[in-house]
């Protein structure tokens, strides 16, 4: 499962398996999970 820091806002999971979470400062944390990726 994906763990998000407590200070992050709701996470958006894109179909390509990219997780975008915006923090309080408005910055974006982007993580790509290869297991969700389709070549």
Note down, in words, how this protein is organized.
The protein has one domain (1-39). It contains no helices and 3 strands. Strand 1 and strand 2 form a beta hairpin. Strands 1-2-3 form a 3-stranded antiparallel β-sheet, with no helix packed on it. With 39 residues, the chain is mainly beta. The chain has strands spanning 12-13, 18-22, 28-32.
Binned, the helix content reads under 10%
Strand order of the largest sheet: 1-2-3
* Largest sheet composition: 3 strands, antiparallel
Question: Oligomeric state of the chains?
Answer: single chain
Anisotropy-based shape: elongated
- The mean pLDDT is 58
Structure class: mainly beta
The tally of domains stands at 1
* N-to-C order of helices and strands: EEE
N-C termini distance: 22 Å
**Poorly predicted segments:** none
State Rg: 11 Å
The tally of strands reads 3
Query: How much β-strand is present in the residues?
Result: 25-35%
How many H/I helices? 0
Protein traits:
39 residues; 0% helix; mainly beta; 3 strands; 3-stranded antiparallel sheet
In terms of topology, how is this protein built?
Layout: E1 12-13, E2 18-22, E3 28-32
Antiparallel strand pairs: 1-2, 2-3
In a few lines, what is going on in this structure?
This protein is an all-beta fold and 39 residues long. It contains no helices and 3 strands. The protein is elongated.
